[in-house]
Design brief:
Length: 60
């Protein structure tokens, strides 16, 4: 079974790039400065993981 995306808040710079690439709209920028994951919607597809320029999101 696939996992879910997990955000590393130490690394995430809240650029919002991954929000736009998630096909399941599981990612959202809360107040424009904190990345949130909707675990119910995340399928663990890994697209955000490949996209993030700083490696702040991983499927675990
Ligand atoms: S692309 Fe990476 S740095 Fe940008 S909001 Fe997503 S997890 Fe954070
Ligand atoms: S693993 Fe896929 S479904 Fe989950 S947040 Fe990342 S892009 Fe969206």
């Amino acid at each position: 079974m696939k996992g879910k995306a997990a955000i590393n808040r130490e690394l995430c710079m809240a650029c919002g790039g991954c929000v736009g690439v998630c096909p399941f709209t599981a990612l959202e920028l809360e107040n424009g400065n904190k990345l949130d994951l909707d675990g119910e919607s995340c399928t663990g597809c890994g697209i955000c993981e490949r996209f993030c320029p700083v490696g702040a999101i991983k499927v675990v």
